[in-house]
Amino acid sequence: MSIPATLLLTSSSLPRALAHLRQDPLCRQFPTVSLALRVLHEALTPSSFFAPYVAVLPRQMHLPLQYTVADFAALASSAAAYASAIQLFYNALRQYLYLHRHFHQQPTIFRHESFSLTNYFWALSVALTRQNNVPTPDDPSALALIPGWDMCNHAIGDMTTYSDSASIHCDAMTSFAPGDEITICYGPRPNADLLVYSGFSLSHNPYNGPVSLVLPLLDQKLDPLVKLRTMLLQKRNATISANGLHVQLDAQSGRLTSRLYREQVQLLVLDKPSLAIALRRDVDKINTPSKESASNGKEGGHEQHLIPWPDQETMDKANRRLQDACAAAILSIKHSNETIHESIRAFLATERRVYELAKSHVVEFKP
């Protein structure tokens, strides 16, 4: 597939009435904003050369800019996706307020009623879901919408795009039979990024990042050693919130992603003598990344660098704490509000499978 460069709708080619924004700090730092303004201008100009293209762009999308309160609440269990979704919404709202004030002070082609929050969020959603980096000698950070090309859905595969001065090209990454949907690869993106910036996720994605798991800390009535445990966890840079200890599970295996997380879980169940051993450990040495061996903290089938287990029962207790936390995460996803958007439901299903894997098939700690 080859698209002539003259058909690209770019962030660096703002209409004359908006040309002054090329030097605006917001547009210079975020070329996606310039691209969104270009899209909105074309959408509001019936005589535009790009009018036929803009007419077939989707009017309904589901990025964080369109999330409901229930959508955000359901996504809160996914640390990476939730943080990115909140940040995107916050940044977009600030952009709109900044631009609205700017256009009010300096009238442009946008009438007051046309530059609405709904219209800007739509144009920004179009840019976010369809933009491609198409650098030029004059603008190495230029972004562009590529008509035709951007109608292709994403699939895991090789990046097969290249460009020359006249066109931008995309070769087929696999053999397509007549009648097959033509897909392209958007890049090695995890589901959290695909959901937030493209509005979908893949049921199986080898690029998925770690999944967050929260293990509750018992209160002092149930665990007299909780203050000591918390202090030891803090010395090991543990992430602790009101909900408990936050650790990371590998998306492919369901195992804890590092030896440091395994030690943090271990600290939740050790008895007082074992915690005293932990207190004497050289914390700085524990936190040195280079100490994490290529075998992921294991050698000869045995855990290395962990505090000695006092008995098998304590080890079993650690495994149960992990399994119980996974069961709670699974239940939370099952009970998600039924009004949430299908894209979020599908994304949460992929995280649920990681919890199910960790709960059903993985014994994290063993002799």
From TrEMBL:
Compositionally biased spans, kind Polar residues: 287-296
Keyword Glycoprotein attributed: no
Taxonomic superkingdom: Eukaryota
InterPro entries hit by this protein: SET_dom_sf, SETD3, SETD3_SETD6_MTase
GO molecular function: protein-L-histidine N-tele-methyltransferase activity; protein-lysine N-methyltransferase activity
Catalyzed chemical reaction(s): L-histidyl-[protein] + S-adenosyl-L-methionine = N(tele)-methyl-L-histidyl-[protein] + S-adenosyl-L-homocysteine + H(+)
Region of interest: Disordered: 287-309
Enzyme Commission number(s) from the entry: 2.1.1.85
Enzyme class: transferase
Single GO BP term: methylation
Keywords, comma-separated and alphabetical: Methyltransferase, S-adenosyl-L-methionine, Transferase
Family as reported in the entry's similarity comment: Belongs to the class V-like SAM-binding methyltransferase superfamily. SETD3 actin-histidine methyltransferase family.
Protein name, UniProt field: protein-histidine N-methyltransferase
Provenance organism: Aphanomyces astaci (Crayfish plague agent)
